[in-house]
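fold-stage: in
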Amino acid sequence: MLPSRTSAVFCERGQPCRPLSHLSRISTVSPPPSTSVGPLLSRGQPDAHLQLPAFFHDHLSSLVNYRCEAVPSCTLQGKLIGLYFSASWCHPCRIFSPRLDTFTKRHPEDFVPIFISLDLNETAMRRYLEQHPAWLALPFKHQATCLDLADKLEIQTLPTLIVCEADTGRPVSAWGVEAIQKNPCRCLKEWRRRRSGISWWHWLKCW
C-alpha cells in the first residue's frame, strides 16, 4: 500500500526539505517494488503508458545539454531514457545524482538521463544542470510541462527516475533510483527486458 500523500518533499530522515506547492502527491517513503512493469510500476497512474508517449512526441525535440544547446532527438534512438525528477534544493537528489552520473558514464551508448526540473527558478536549474554534463534537460521555459508531467504520473518522492524506451516512449520502470543504488551491474539488462531492474531481494539486502 502506498504511503499517505503530503504537500512536501521529504529527505531521507523524514524531515521536510521544501514545500512543493505545485504538487499535492509527494510522500515520504517509497514502497518496495515488484519484479515486472506492470500496472505502471506501482508509482504512476495506470494510464502512464498513454501519458509518456505523448510527452515524448511533443517535447523530445526540445531537449538541451548542460550548455543549454539544442540536442537532436535522433541521438537518442535505440537508447533507454531516464526521466529524472529532481531539484537542486532536494538533499536526497544531491546525494543520488553523482551515482546517476557514474552509471551514465558506464553506459553512454545505452542510457541517458533527462532532467525534469522541479527547481523554483531558471538560475538554480541551470547551475544544477551544469554540474552534470551527461544529462539532457527540458529548458526552464517548459517548467509548466515538467510540473504537469510530475502531477499526471503522481510522482511521490524526489528523486524519482522513470526509465523509458526512447523510440516508443514506453515506460519500463519507475524504480530507476533504487535499481541504480542496489542493482547497478544488472539493472540495464533487466530494463532492456522491460523489467523493473530491482527485486524484493535487492530491496531487503543490507549490503
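fold-stage: in (second)
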Amino acid sequence: MSAAAVLRRSLPLICSRCRRSYSGPDGDIFLPAALSKVDPVQNAPLVQAYFTNGFMISGARVMGSVALLPRGMLHWRVASKDDLTPESFSLFHLVEPKIDVVVLGTGSKVERVDPAIRSYLQRKGISLEIQDTPNACATFNFLLDEGRLAGAALIPPDYVPP
C-alpha cells in the first residue's frame, strides 16, 4: 500500500480538520488546514504548558490531544489510551525528514499500550518512549533542543496540580 493510501485511510484517526490529502508535484503529501507550520528559525513547536483540555505550544493554545512533529503540529483524534491503535501513529513514519523517536504522553499517569503499536513503529525504524504527559512534554522539548528528530503524541492529563 502506498504512503498516500495509508495516510488517506488513517487521516480520520489522526486529525480532526483534514478532509483529504493532496500530492504535490514532487510526490509530497499536503494536509490542508491541519498542519501548523513553524518557522524553522524559531526552532520547533515547543510545549510551554499543559492543561486538562489541551496544551500551549509555541504561544498557541491547542485544545485536545496533539501530534507534534519537528516542524509542525496536528490535532490528534485520540481522547484516551483506549483510542490508541497502530494506525493512529501512521503519520509519524510518513513525514520527512524521518523521525527517530516518538514520545507518547498517556495523560496523568503512565499507561500500558497495545504491544502492536510498539511493533508497528519498530518496523518503521522509530522508537517509542511512553511517559505521563507532563514528563513527555519535557522529554520532547529536550530532544528537540538536542537537535533530535522527535515526534510527540500527547493526550492531555486528567489532573493538573495547582
